[in-house]
Amino acid sequence: MPQKPIVFDAPQPEPRARTVEALKAEILERLTYSVGKDPAVARPHDWLTATILAVRERVIDGWMESSRETWRTGNKRVYYLSLEFLIGRLMRDAFSNIGLMEPVRQALDGLNVDLKELMDLEPDAALGNGGLGRLAACFLESMSTIKIPAYGYGIRYAHGLFRQEMSEGWQVELPEEWLAHGNPWEFERRESSYEIGFGGHVEPVQEPDGSVRHEWHPSEHLNAVAFDTPIVGWRGARVNTLRLWSAQPIDPILLDKFNEGDHIGALAESAKAEAITRVLYPADATPAGQELRLRQEFFFSSASLQDIVRRHLQQFGDLGSLPDKVAIQLNDTHPAISIAEMMRILMDTHGLRWAEAWKLTKGVFSYTNHTLMPEALESWPVALLERLLPRHMQIIYAINAEVLTEARTVAGFNDAQIANVSLIDEGGQRRVRMGQLAFVGSHAINGVSALHTELMKKTVFANLNTLYPDRISNKTNGVTPRRWLLQCNPGLTRLITDRIGPAFQDDIERLADLEAHAEDPNFQAQFAKVKHANKQALAALIKERLNVTVSPDALFDVQIKRIHEYKRQLLNVIEAVAHYSAIRAHPERNWVPRVKVFAGKAAPSYWNAKLIIKLTNDIARVINNDPAVRGLLKVVFLPNYNVSLAETIIPAADLSEQISTAGMEASGTGNMKFALNGALTIGTLDGANVEMREAVGPENMFIFGLTAEEVAEKRSRSEVPRGAIDNSPALKEALEMISSGVFSPDDPNRYRELIGGLYDHDWFMVARDFDTYADAQRQVDTVWADRRRWNAMAIRNTAHMGWFSSDRTIAQYAAEIWNVPTSRGGA
Ligand SMILES: *Cc1c(COP(=O)(O)O)cnc(C)c1O
């Protein structure tokens, strides 16, 4: 449909004033006229909404300006497609980035409202599971900060990831109700809705010129409706859009059916459509669960691509310029079906020929790989794709034919290599491999740390890398220093500013100026004082949530992340048991008091992960209540790990546990947040730990354990870990305590199988890394006892983490993948 041209000199309102007085007046006005509440009876949630609405208008001023500029200049746009955006709370981020934190605080003071109290009321947008989703959120903020015109595209899950509660130490999953009070940050765009189809059949149509065009006639339809959230960069540099899609039925109610008395049946279609955007990671243990997941992926991919192509045509009028004006980044393979969808839109809707469409598609897409674990590489049964997306299946076959021809004729691949690069896995039930699809349809593929990128080239994509050399590159992850230092740790931010000036706030690599102060006893004392205050706050939270008393003078040893066997919370817990045993056996020794903090969610169908949570809680109960321990060791598991909890825990950590089985953590970003906030890392040579060690110096980290190569070698020999256990009395005793029921007297066999796995195959090398890990922990104790040395190391960690900013990562994507300019500094 023809669109009206954009008129840039249309009248604009005056930008909103930014003074305390103006804010105060407007918060009152929003409360009265938008929330509809008399200030005399307004509740805290009403004030929260009114405050966000008032500040939002300042954000909108920048938003309009950013958008007008992109339309005016015709600059290239970046589209970041991700099934997850773990953005957390938005209020502190937005207020702080546009520089209105203090004025708002004062305005609210004048109204007798406490900003801190309001901030705690804001729900976390938990639209993600872990690192991958948090990365997407950091990237959005960085793209705004370095002024890249960008959109995030994802799903507006009504319930997001589940809320975790504990029941007798077991995880229980409850729906997250983040929208219960509405969401004042978002704008529903009814006018931006697209039809999404599923099922049906494909009809070849003979064109007058003799060519054949394909028409897909889906049997099911629903609408994708856009909800937009503005994302402000640091100092308001630019405001980009996070566009999340919500599924809605085309016919909300079948009135005939309803009037016939079939009330439920009349609404069934509606419920089915809406189910698509209800929850993140529906359990996929059943075929219905798997299908829902594929529906989610196609739903948001299709809506996003229709929107991108519509916007491009509206502005530029031709499709040939797509790669010059559009870059689409696939965050893992979840949106990889976009490649087939783009081909369908270009050919079936716009009549392009195959060769042209394929060239444009590859010019536009690039793909980030986040995992090499075979069970995590997405694939879909051919039969399911054929039924749900018949036209896309045809296109995937056609792409595959082209790739396999090249592999045979150009690269001279043998049958094994052909089978390896094929988009179709022919072993057993035929499946479409989404990693292969994403790879062949992209001009650039990146890993997320140096080590992970190398492993990618050697393992899953070895043959594709031979076939298409130079597509793979590394873009080591980063985190936004605004959220993960300036906002979550105001005490440290103030201290650093006092010492080296505020320049680091705009150029985070200036943190390196702290190096010169690392040995200064006065600065060390101040640094430790800030950490102590953060630990007091965390101790208060632990008391409030768990009723466990911990001393802020103890060493706070923290492992917070999704619960997974490869992340090896089990190694940490077993070491805690061994340590507990040693404290009891040797009361005469000078033990360093420690608090072990855990948090993290387990996937609902991942039994061992849930069992590890229960084990942690079982052990915590025994250790925390054993008078013989004399408070020298405490173990706590904080429920419902999310961004807000991370923002409280990380600034209070002394020791950061990054102990994954080497070769299995693609990058990690938690590791970066901790070090930035002055925690020392105990970790393996895995993911970005490797590069962190180079940045901070090996003498400022506690590295232990097998390397990725050694792990691969042991696995290939199927070596049994018996020796590792027999030769380590401490490990043996700890394992026997756990498996014999010392911590589970109500069910002594609860952990028998879990521990049995360590004797049997020990896939994750828990037993084989135990001794070096325990030694590293005692090394930690030794350094902690020399507090000046510890503090110097902590300062050096903060000083050298500037490179791990997502601004740097995004600048690399911009220069090396997207081909878009960047610029720094506020508007
Ligand atoms: C940073 C972050 C993660 C990723 O942590 P890793 O330790 O890298 O796995 C996961 N969840 C939340 C809430 C985070 O903030």
From TrEMBL:
One GO cellular component term noted in the UniProt record for this chain: cytoplasm
Cell location: Cytoplasm
N6-(pyridoxal phosphate)lysine modifications at: K673
Pfam families: Phosphorylase (PF00343)
InterPro entries, A to Z: Glycg_phsphrylas, Glyco_trans_35, Pyridoxal_P_attach_site
Keywords noted in UniProt: Allosteric enzyme, Carbohydrate metabolism, Cytoplasm, Glycosyltransferase, Pyridoxal phosphate, Transferase
Coiled-coil segments on the chain, per record: none
Enzyme Commission code: 2.4.1.1
Stated family: Belongs to the glycogen phosphorylase family.
Biological role: Phosphorylase is an important allosteric enzyme in carbohydrate metabolism. Enzymes from different sources differ in their regulatory mechanisms and in their natural substrates. However, all known phosphorylases share catalytic and structural properties.
PANTHER family: GLYCOGEN PHOSPHORYLASE, GLYCOGEN PHOSPHORYLASE, LIVER FORM
Protein name in UniProt: Alpha-1,4 glucan phosphorylase
Organism: Arsenicitalea aurantiaca
